[in-house]
C-alpha cells in the first residue's frame, strides 16, 4: 500500500530513531530543519511527531524539544516499530524476547481454545492449515496461512485481552515465521506439529494442546538459532511474504 505524506514522514523518522541515527536521550532536529530535510510542512512534521509519541519512541515538551525515549519505552507491539527494527537489524535479544513471549501467551490461549473454540473457529483453523499444506505441496505463500492459523488459535480463546494481543502479535509472529521459512525443510517439518495442535483443540484436550504448541514453538526457536548461527541475512517483514517452491516429493 502506498503511504501518504504523513505516513512517509512517520516512516522516515521512525527508521532514523530505531536505526540509531537519533539515539535514546538525544533530540531530533527542530521543526524548521525537519521540514527542510523532509520537504514537508510544519503541520506534517507535528502530526508525525504525535504518531511517534503514541508509539513510545519520543517525548516532547517545552524547552526540551522532542527527545528519543529509551528502547524499553517503545511500543514493541506496534507493527511499525517491529518493521523499523527488522530494517535496522534483528538482534539476538529481540528474537529471544519474541520466543519468550510466545511461550507465555500461546500455550495459555491454545488451552482456552481447546475449551471454547466454536465450529466456525475450527473451520477457519482447518482452512488455514489447508493453505499451509497447499503451499508446501504446490508452492506459494506459506507464511500468510501460518500467521492466520496462530492468530486463529488465539482468537479461538474468546478472551478479549488475548484477542487484542493477537493483532499486536501479528508482526512479531511474522518475523519468527519468515526466519523459520529460511530453512528449506522448516515448513514441511512443522506441518505435522501444527496438525497435532489443531487435533488437540478439536478433541477438547487443553493439556495436550498446550504441550503440542510448546513443541511447535521450541522447534521454531531451534530454526531461528540455526539461521542466526549460519549468519545468513535475515528477512524483512516489510516485504511480501516468502514464497515456497513446490515439493518434489
Account of the protein in words:
With 249 residues, this protein is mainly alpha-helical. It has two domains: 5-73, Arc Repressor Mutant, subunit A; 79-244, Four Helix Bundle (Hemerythrin (Met), subunit A) (Up-down Bundle), CATH 1.20.120. It contains ten helices and four strands, in the order αααββαααβααααβ. The strands form two sheets. The chain has a two-stranded antiparallel ribbon with strand order 1-2. The protein has a two-stranded antiparallel ribbon with strand order 3-4. A hairpin with a 3-residue loop joins strand 1 (58-61) and strand 2. Helix 5 (92-116) packs across helix 7 and helix 5 (92-116) packs parallel to helix 9. It is elongated.
Classification by helices and strands:
mainly alpha
Q: Tell me the CATH topology of the largest domain.
A: Four Helix Bundle (Hemerythrin (Met), subunit A)
The CATH homologous superfamily of the largest domain: GntR ligand-binding domain-like
CATH class of the largest domain, named: Mainly Alpha
Distance between the termini: 37 Å
Largest sheet: 2 strands, antiparallel
Topology:
Elements: H1 5-18, H2 31-38, H3 42-54, E1 58-61, E2 65-68, H4 79-88, H5 92-116, H6 119-138, E3 140-141, H7 143-155, H8 160-182, H9 186-202, H10 206-230, E4 243-244
Antiparallel strand pairs: 1-2, 3-4
Helix pairs in contact: 1-3, 1-4, 2-3, 4-8, 5-7, 5-8, 5-9, 5-10, 6-7, 6-9, 7-8, 8-10, 9-10
Amino acid at each position: 500500500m502506498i503511504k501518504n505524506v504523513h505516513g512517509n514522514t512517520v516512516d522516515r523518522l521512525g527508521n532514523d530513531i530505531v536505526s540509531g541515527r537519533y539515539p535514546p536521550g538525544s533530540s531530533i532536529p527542530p521543526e524548521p530543519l525537519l521540514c527542510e530535510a523532509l520537504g514537508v510542512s510544519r503541520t506534517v512534521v507535528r502530526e508525525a511527531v504525535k504518531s511517534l509519541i503514541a508509539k513510545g519512541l519520543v517525548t516532547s515538551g517545552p524547552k526540551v524539544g522532542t527527545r528519543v525515549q529509551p528502547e524499553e519505552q517503545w511500543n514493541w507491539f506496534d507493527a511499525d516499530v517491529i518493521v523499523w527494527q527488522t530494517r535496522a537489524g534483528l538482534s539476538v535479544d529481540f528474537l529471544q524476547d519474541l520466543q519468550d513471549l510466545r511461550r507465555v501467551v500461546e500455550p495459555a490461549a491454545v488451552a482456552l481454545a481447546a475449551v471454547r473454540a466454536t465450529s466456525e473457529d475450527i473451520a477457519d483453523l482447518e482452512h488455514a492449515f489447508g493453505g499451509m499444506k497447499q503451499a508446501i505441496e504446490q508452492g506459494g505463500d506459506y507464511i500468510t496461512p501460518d500467521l492466520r492459523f496462530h492468530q486463529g488459535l488465539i482468537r479461538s480463546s474468546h478472551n478479549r485481552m488475548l484477542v487484542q494481543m493477537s493483532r499486536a502479535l501479528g508482526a512479531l509472529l511474522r518475523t519468527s515465521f519468515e526466519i523459520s521459512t529460511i530453512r528449506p525443510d522448516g515448513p514441511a517439518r512443522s506441518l505435522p506439529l501444527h496438525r497435532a495442535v489443531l487435533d488437540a483443540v478439536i478433541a477438547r484436550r487443553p493439556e495436550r494442546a498446550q504441550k503440542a504448541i510448546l513443541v511447535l514453538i521450541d522447534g521454531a526457536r531451534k530454526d531461528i538459532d540455526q539461521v542466526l548461527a549460519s549468519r545468513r541475512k535475515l528477512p524483512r517483514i516489510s516485504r511480501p511474504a516468502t514464497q515456497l517452491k513446490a515439493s518434489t516429493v
